[in-house]
Write a structure and sequence with these properties.
single chain, mainly beta
Length: 51
């Protein structure tokens, strides 16, 4: 994957980066927020996109 399209997802509770994904930054300007499983918290939590 190209590095300019890569985004990181950080858990909102424990603040650890758990997931990586990609998006088209020209079309989607706002930051994504998804519910994902956090292996550190051991539950589903909201994950926000970070830089």
């Amino acid at each position: 994957m190209s590095q300019d399209n890569m985004i990181k997802f950080e858990c909102t509770e424990c603040k650890k980066v758990n997931y990586f994904s990609r998006k088209n930054k020209k079309l989607l300007k706002e930051r994504l927020e998804l519910n994902k499983y956090c292996k550190h918290c051991k539950k589903h939590t909201a994950h926000k996109e970070t830089k």
